[in-house]
Amino acid sequence: MDRAVLLTVTDDMTAMWSMRFVAGFFPDKKHLEVCVLYVAPSGYSAAHEETRIVLSDIEVRKGREIVETARQWLVEHGFSGAKIKTKVLSTQYGVVKDIVSEARKGMYDAVVVGRRYLDWMEMLYTTSVSRGILWEDVDFPVWICNEPDSTRQGILLCADGSAPVAHMADHVGFMLGAVPEMRVTILHLRTPGVSADDAVEEARRRILDNGIEASRISTLITAGQDKVGTILRIAHEGNFAVVAVGRRPDLPESLVRRVFTRSVSLGLHENVNKFSLWVCR
Prior knowledge:
This is Universal stress protein UspA. By secondary structure, the protein is of the alpha/beta class.
């Protein structure tokens, strides 16, 4: 069965990180479908169509050049040209919301974005696309990619017994079916009121149900009051290529909560500098 990903690109070089990650993660690309998406940041309203936004000729040409460059790069790195689609859209509701809308329409297995670095002042008043998607009420897995390191291998799946992690375990198992050599480590950080054995076993069962061999799965149960710090330490010590987490549905709503409330997924996002982050609700 093919895996289908929506690969977002921009005119920023960080967009290449997402392409490089996908190219490196899937050695055999014959079962992978890719839609390369560019959302143009501007357009003008057509007078005869109230809800339609029309791209200028310059924006159309620029967008087509960007997605065609990405398509050629993917073909050069082993992807089947017949399984690559390209799409150029004008922003309707903002780049983040438009990506989310397109992802839902296409029912992709994952949305892949490159991470843009923000300094602390920018984080107060603006956001990157990757960070913005984590604030949206999305129902699909998101891959947030840093510049990939070919020496890093394997997936660290953080299991806490929650429904989002169960969904992520399903996603990890499904994607691992296309990467025969990839291993996954299920990590549980002890939490009062949560059975470590049950949390790990639930994640393990869901991965196995996707046809993944038990020999490719290992488990680690440890303490860690600072969840983000502990996950980062283990991810770096284990040289993992991917950290996979579930995301809480109770997202921050105000600027004050944005600054002072940090979920595990957002905390990890701020420190994605060696691995790529997979997030699922």
